[in-house]
Design goal:
It is a single chain. Helix 7 packs across helix 9. By secondary structure, this protein is of the alpha+beta class. Helix content is about 30%, strand content about 25%. The strands form four sheets. Strands 1, 2, 10, 11, 12, 13, 19 and 20 form an eight-stranded mixed beta sheet that branches. Strands 8-7-15-16-17-14-18 form a seven-stranded mixed beta sheet, sandwiched between helices. The protein has a three-stranded antiparallel beta sheet with strand order 5-9-6. A hairpin with a 6-residue loop joins strand 15 and strand 16. The protein folds into two domains: about 150 residues, FAD/NAD(P)-binding domain (3-Layer(bba) Sandwich), CATH 3.50.50.60; about 250 residues, Polyamine Oxidase, Chain A, domain 2. The protein is globular, with a radius of gyration of 22 Å. The longest helix is centred in the C-terminal third of the chain and has 19 residues.
Length: about 425
């Protein structure tokens, strides 16, 4: 049984842990990341199989994230953006809802879309100005209510709520009931309005890899699971003890509660992400696709190789379909149901679409119903020389993982300096 002395041990090698470790390393601290899985990234991982890049669940990076703008080199990732808008499937055809200011070619199709009434479109413009003009700090200080109530109070019709906001918000927060906090909704809407939904050219895993590149390789240990914590000591499953001046828990909320000896109280939404290879895409644009009808397993889908050609090889097309919930114990049944719905949407051409892989993420995102945490009031210190970062006490997502990780590191540094 070994014993190693360190300034800080960070438990968890996702974005929050990497952000924390990188900040501490830049300040000259001896830091070590303990990661239970075989690689860094947490929920942000990418597999390369048969020439296809498949992220662990459909994910995007919003270029408007202020923390990401500081922490990540977008140019080095060679970000590839979706068109600013969506295709909504309703009444057996696709309707475009796009930002005509950024994509003027979608102006008339958006203006005449039956998904939103003229008053709904006016209210969308009103919501755009409301959210884009408010600082994020103000949004998270505002009063809150479930998003479905917020949209009703804002005056949106049932038509646009059911056929646009429901699948859109479900795709972002995995919340088909759109019951998450209105603060979270305003934040999400602001990010989509002010930036692009993008993916790194070579897969989402390039984001944690870029963060880790600033750390010496010996600062990261994988396949090292933590069994317990003691005062200034992290105990691994194999009995090894890592003595340290400070400990940062940068894992999912449930694992944080286990290590703190608390009962798990966080409820999660799960998702399936099914990848298919197609000879060619059904349409030429790179818009996200939403299920505006509310039936069938699919909530949203994306043709990723239309955004980045590196996601597929030999001129093929890679498509990701997202199914929310825990409704399918038999993944073959799920695959058949998804294929049947794809055929309804795109016709017999889907008979040639080949299923590649299904990812089942059981704890994809925590429930974000009110009261939502205010990430700007996040207090990373939970004990003597014990800190947290990530979704526990804050919010999930790339923006808040990076922000909370940096905040935890700065808290450690200020405590050590006596400030």
């Amino acid at each position: 049984m070994g014993r190693i002395a360190l300034d800080t041990v960070v438990v968890g090698g996702g974005l929050a842990g990497l952000s924390c470790a990188r900040t501490l390393h830049k300040a000259g601290r001896n830091v070590f990341i303990v990661e239970a899985s075989d690689d860094i990234g947490g929920r942000i991982r990418t597999d390369e199989i048969d020439g296809f890049l498949m992220d662990w669940g459909f994910q995007v990076l919003q270029t408007a994230y202020p923390e990401a703008r500081q922490a990540i080199d977008f140019k080095a990732l060679n970000l590839q953006s979706f068109d600013p808008g969506v295709l909504v499937f309703k009444n057996n055809r696709f309707h475009i809802m796009a930002d005509p200011l950024r994509k003027p070619r979608y102006f008339f199709k958006t203006m005449f879309s039956s998904i939103a009434s003229p008053m709904d479109k006016f209210r969308l413009l009103k919501l755009f100005f409301k959210t884009t003009r408010r600082p994020l700090e103000y949004i998270f200080e505002a009063s809150e209510r479930p998003t479905h109530q917020y949209l009703k109070d804002f005056g949106f019709s049932d038509n646009i709520v059911q056929h646009f906001f429901r699948p859109f918000f479900a795709g972002v927060c995995l919340d088909p009931a759109i019951a998450a906090s209105s603060r979270v909704f305003e934040y999400v809407f602001k990010m989509f309005a002010q930036g692009d939904a993008a993916i790194p050219e070579a897969g989402m895993a390039e984001i944690p890899r870029q963060l880790a590149a600033d750390l010496p390789k010996e600062c990261i240990g994988t396949q090292m699971r933590v069994s317990s914590l003691r005062q200034n000591c992290v105990v691994l499953d194999d009995g090894q003890e890592l003595t340290t001046n400070s400990i940062v828990l940068a894992t999912g909320a449930g694992e944080v509660q286990r290590l703190l000896g608390r009962k798990e109280t966080v409820s999660y939404f799960s998702e399936y992400c099914l990848y298919f290879a197609a000879p060619k895409p059904p349409f030429p644009n790179s818009l996200l696709v939403l299920n505006g009808e509310g039936n069938g397993p699919i909530n949203n889908l994306a043709f990723l190789s239309q955004v980045s050609g590196k996601y597929a090889s030999n001129g093929q097309t890679l498509m990701a379909a997202v199914v929310i919930g825990e409704y399918y114990e038999d993944e073959d049944q799920l695959k058949r149901s998804v294929k049947a719905q794809l055929r309804e949407w795109f016709g017999s051409a889907t008979d040639r679409w080949r299923h590649l892989k299904t990812y089942h993420i059981k704890k994809a995102l925590p429930d974000q119903q009110p009261p939502a945490a205010n990430p700007f009031r996040f207090n990373p210190r939970v004990g003597n020389n014990l800190y947290v970062c990530g979704e526990y006490g804050s919010l999930p997502g790339i923006q808040w993982a990076l922000y909370s990780g940096r905040s935890a590191a700065e808290s450690i540094l200020s405590t050590e300096s006596g400030l």
